[in-house]
Amino acid sequence: MDETVAEFIKRTILKIPLNELTTILKAWDFLSENQLQTVNFRQRKESVVQHLIHLCEEKRASLNDAALLDIIYTQFHQHQKVWDVFQMSKGPGEDVDLFDMKQFKNSFKKILQRALKNVTVSFRETEENAVWIRIAWGTQYTKPNQYKPTYVVYYSQTPYAFKSSSTLRRNTPLLGQELEATGKIYLQEEITLDITEMKKAYN
C-alpha cells in the first residue's frame, strides 16, 4: 500500500469518534468481519489505528478504497457541512434521462477528468437512491489534494444536486459546467433545501 494512501486512511480514522468506528468500518466493507474481530477497540486509539492500517496494508488498500472511507465518514457527519443546492432541468428540446445513474456517473467522471488532468473522482451509491461523489482537486502541476475535497450528492429520483462548500473556490464554476455537460442539463439558481430532510424523504 502506498504511503500516501496509508496516511490518508490514518487521518480519516483519527477523525472518527471511537463510538462510531466499528459502524463506519462495517459500512466501508473493505475489511472482513474476521479481520475486524482481531482489533481490540478498547485500547488506545493510536493502537487501534496502527492495527487497522496494518490490516489495510495486508489487503493493499488503494486510493479509491481510502476515498470511499472518507465518503462514508462524511455521510455520517453531513450535518457538519454547508451545502449548496442546485435544481437541474432539461434544456429546451433535450430528451435526457436525469435519473440514469450509470450514465450520470460515467459522464461526470469522464468530462471532469478531461477538463482537469489532476483530479480524482470517487463514487458511492446509497440505499436512498443517491450517489455520493468525492472530488479531490489538483492543478496542472500538482497532484490532487485529498484533504480538501468537494462532495456532490445527487438524488436520482429528484432533480436536485447538493454540493459541499469548498475552500477551493476556483473550482466551483468548473464543477457547475461539468454538471451541466454531464447530461446536457442546466443548473437553475440555487435553492434552499436541507440535505438531511431530502434523505429522510427517500428512506
UniProtKB/TrEMBL annotation:
Name the keywords, alphabetized.
Centromere, Chromosome, Nucleus
Segments traversing the membrane: none
Q: Which InterPro entries match?
A: CENP-NAC/CAD_complex, Chl4/mis15/CENP-N
Primary localisation category: nucleus
Pfam families under this entry?
Answer: CENP-N
Q: Which GO terms describe its biological process?
A: CENP-A containing chromatin assembly; chromosome segregation
At the top level, the lineage of the source is Eukaryota
Q: Where in the cell is it found?
A: Chromosome, Centromere; Nucleus
Query: What is any one of the record's Gene Ontology cellular component terms?
Result: chromosome, centromeric region
Concerning PANTHER family, the annotation shows:
CENTROMERE PROTEIN N
Family classification: Belongs to the CENP-N/CHL4 family.
Record's protein name: Centromere protein N
